[in-house]
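Subject: Sanity check before I submit

Could someone independently write out the structure tokens for this chain? I want to compare against mine line by line before I put it in a report. The sequence has 309 residues.
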Amino acid sequence: MSNFIRQLSPTGQGVAIMLLGMFLFALNDAMGKLLVSTYSLGQVVMVRSGAAVIVLLILLWRSGLDKVVRVERPALQAARVFFSTAELFCFYFAVAALPLADVMTYWLAAPIYVAALSPFLLGEKVGWRRWTAIAIGFIGVLVALQPSSASLTSAALFSILGSAAFAFMMLSGRQLRNTPDTVLAFWQVVGAGVAGVLAIAVVPSGWVPLKSAFDLSLLCLLGIVAMTAHILVNRALKLADAATVAPLQYTLLLWAVVFGWLMFGDIPQTGIVVGAGLIVVSGLYIFFRENALKRKADRSARPPLDDVV
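---
Independent answer below. Compare away.
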């Protein structure tokens, strides 16, 4: 596999690595759904985060551990940790009760929330075309959610809350562009690990005795797979343009359907399929529109050729 990737062009390598990263994210989510059916939520999050911290410490040791302590805008960093922790707990709570594809559909709506909130929180301008796409995306969420007394369960509500927390995490990340990805990820998993410990201490039966060494390895592998996926995505974005690789995130839906069917026998309902389609179309349009406007702004900012000469 590695030899095949090396033979590709940089853009081809970026595409291949991004696809692999999305596969690992979906695998991580499927493993998480499997584990929270046996072990407590706090337990899964704590062990997962502990394994991820070990991986991150190895990476940070090479670049210097001082970066972990000297962070920009500590208050915003803390807010990001809060939202990332809330997002993680909401995801595992939701995925314990809902099919994987359903939960993933709600989470992929997060970029739509970001686009809707960016004018108010970041001062970014959003034109009527993107507002139309945002409205279509929200319609997709409603179609997937099918709000009624019969379908609006606590798990569905936690899915919406979790995807909203994920959106706020993305918004705070936009304001922390000078912070290395490994530092952001380090405090993210540390915050989740602390929350996991507190959940074990507070919730009755917060610790379920491990059934086997294999289960322990799966719990640890959960964090390692997630960190590997993050590293692959960051690498893909360095090898290829974001416009080429970022849309590949929607392959998560495909893998969610595959893993949901193979591991749990889940088959997506019509509402989820239609809603997911609207969310994907909306998200893709917003992404490509933002990239087009960014390229236009970059061209306008360039000095005339005569001035350069």
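---
OP: Matches mine. For the report I'm noting this point. The chain has a mean pLDDT of 84.
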